# Entry
Amino acid sequence: MTPITPVLAVRRLTLTRFRGYDSARLEPDRRPVALIGPNGAGKTNLLEAVSFLAPGRGLRGAKLAEIERIGSRPGAGWAVAATLDTPGGPVEIGTGREPHDGMVPRKPTDRDRRLVRIDGHAAKSQTALAEHVAVVWLTPQMDRLFLEGSTGRRRFLDRLVFGFDPSHAGRLSRYEHSLRERARLLRDGCFDEGWLGGLEDQMATTGVAVAAARREVVQRLRA
# Structure
C-alpha cells in the first residue's frame, strides 16, 4: 500500500517550452525549497510553473500564449508536469497549452483553454486541480493588497478558501454568471419576472454559500 503523507510536496517538476526554459526538470524532496540566483535566472518562472498546478491563471495572471518559451515559434505550446505527494497519496498532474501550427481551423477559445491531465486522464476543466492542490502566494506586486479596494482582498481570500473547499470555485462561477445574465436582461429591457426571479434566486442561494465559506475560513485563520 502506498504510504499516505499529511503534507503537500512537489517531488518532480518538469517544464517544456515554459517562459525562459526550453526544458527543465527538478526533483526536490519534502523539505522547504529556497530558490537563489541573480536577476533573470528564472526563479520566478519556476514559481509560476508551480502555481499552474492549481486552478487559475497562475502567479502572473498571464495569457496562455504569453507563457510559451521566448524565441519559440508562435503556437509551439508549453507544458508543466509534476509528481506530488498529497494527503490522499501521490498524484501526477500535467497542464499546458496544446501546440498548433495555425493551419487547422480551430475556435479561438480552444487555443486559450488550459489543458489538464490528472493521473493520465483528461480533466473536464482546471477546477479539478483544486481537489488535489491548493496554492497561495504573496508577491511584491501585491504589496497594495491591504491598502486598496476590497475586490482584490476578496479574490485573495477566495484563493485561500479553495484550499479548504474545492467546490467554492464552482459557486463563485455560478454566482458571477447569474449576475452577468441579470445585468444583460436589465440592460436589454427584458423584465420577464420568471427569468429574473430564477436568476436572483440562484444569486441568493450561491451568494449565501460563498459568504458562509469565506466566513468559515476567516474563523479558521483567527483560531
Remarks:
- The mean pLDDT is 88.
- The CA atoms of residues 67 and 95 lie 12 Å apart.
- Residues 141-222 form one domain.
